[in-house]
Amino acid sequence: MDSRSDAGTGRAAGPTLYLESGELDPTEAFCTDVFDEAEAGEYRVVQLIASQSFESVSDELDALLEHIDDPSEAAVIITTPQDDDESAVARVGEETPLYGFRVSPQDLTGISIAFSRILEKWEQTAGSVKICLRDVESLLPYHDTDLLYRFLNTVLATLQGAGADVHMHLRPDAADDRALRMFSSLFDRVVDTSESPPEAEPEGDGAEAGESTDAGDASSETEPGGDSLGAEEPDEAEEPDDTEKADDTEKADEDADDVVPVTMDDDEIASFLTAEGHGVLAFGGESPYAIPMSYGYDPDERAVYVHMSAFEGSEKAARLDGPTAVSLVVSRYEGPDRWRSVVVDGTLSELSEADVDRRDVLESFKGGSLASVDVFNRPLSDISFEWYVLDPSSISGRQGARSR
Q: What is the pTM (predicted TM-score) of this model?
């Protein structure tokens, strides 16, 4: 499954949030944006919508495809209180299969499963996947804002990881300011449709038109192993002289030195913590307890922010009863001489909503990707999501000598 991707990253282009100035027409269930720049037979589309019958969506898409190149496949996830937990299939356009899933708006896990089923079905197929998330505000009456934020983060990460091109529509007047800030922080681009559209920016990193941005060109083409093509090869029968032997010995000594770790300076630590976004959080106490954890780092305040779920009786809830001594370990390993590891020791404390706003936590947390969690299998009323700050008492970092 291919898709448009950010240059050099292999990831799908970052998701876009469209802030709608008014109500979306409920009779126009299928977003036409998913058809932009698409070629017939080489793309697939998915729509998340609320309170529409599968038949009405099928009829509308069938009419749309009279004027648009048909996608090879299409799917719709309908959130409705009258869900029947059944899927349906129809034919639209010339011969495009349309798969339909009806899910209760209370069932966030069911919505995630529907997306997973669609992506798994298309995993081995060629062509791009374009996804529109619409009517997300209809989920707000059923769920806490923090839970929806976490759910959207998980869904967006899943769709992006599968190479899909994703956008979402949201009416600002349907959400309070806090919810709007939280949801907006999940998107690479936020477009207010009531304003003039932003001018298109040139792609790439500033290279002139026609200029190659590849790391190498014909003048630096190399064979596997790194030798330049056309370089003179040594005579295999030629014995190295004493100078060459001395160079080899010196190089061996340098290689040995390269595996000796060195201390990271403050700038290197700040850059590493800001870029990584996930690590392992270990709680102090008589018995060890450590969990994978996404985080955001504010280098100016030297503060680490985490967003955690807990339920009564859980180990995590017991550990979070008041300020807690913790250690956050963030590491990256690329080889014996190319690795980095940072340990942040300090105290973890809960933040109020006012503190979250004052500290601009969401901005710092943009680098932290929330992983899927199994708490959605529990009654949502039993789960709480809170923001915490780790105020460091010490931050230390080590790295392989060739990591710089």
A: 0.60
